[in-house]
């Protein structure tokens, strides 16, 4: 009987480990719009020369990493950064709009210094909506890529929502989290 219980335990451990996801969360390289403090939101964005160098440096840093999947948003700044890594890995990025940056609504394309952050218009994606979308993204990874090692290239604001989801924080905590530096990496294990 103890032997049967041991094998059941062992089976459960192996099954859990096989479905665990190793996630490397990163942010796209610097954009021309970042340099001008423009709220890009869901605009494509254009990698600056520094941003292109950052993307190549990320690819170099991850050169020895085993990756099964690279996921990015459908915005050019995320995709272009992902492609720098993908070319070295012989992978094609999986593109999903779930990983898009926060929708700044009527503030999209505006200079941050000109915005009133105390009373955001209704067209701006709410923190609760951002948090829900981050949860949908995490569930997407669990459903589509169980047991895989994933690099996800996201965005400064949205990555904070993903981190809040993964660390089981409330939506209100999103704004207190630091914005990731361009092409910085954080590692998570998803059960």
What does this structure look like?
The protein contains six helices and five strands; from the N terminus they run αβααβαβαβαβ. It is α/β, with parallel strands linked by helices and 191 residues long. Strands 3-2-4-1-5 form a five-stranded mixed β-sheet. The chain is globular, with a radius of gyration of 18 Å. The mean pLDDT is 93.
List the helices and strands and how they pair.
Elements lengths: L1 H18 L1 E7 L4 H4 L13 H13 L7 E4 L3 H14 L4 E2 L31 H18 L4 E6 L1 H11 L18 E6 L1
Helix pairs in contact: 3-4, 5-6
User: How many strand elements?
Assistant: 5
Shape: globular
What value does the Rg take, in angstroms? 18 Å
Q: What letter string, H or E per element, gives the SSE order?
A: HEHHEHEHEHE
Which percent bin holds the helix content? 40-55%
Low-confidence stretches: none
How much of the residues is beta strand, in percent? 5-15%
What's the rounded overall pLDDT mean?
93
Output the structural class: alpha/beta
**Please, how many helices?**
6
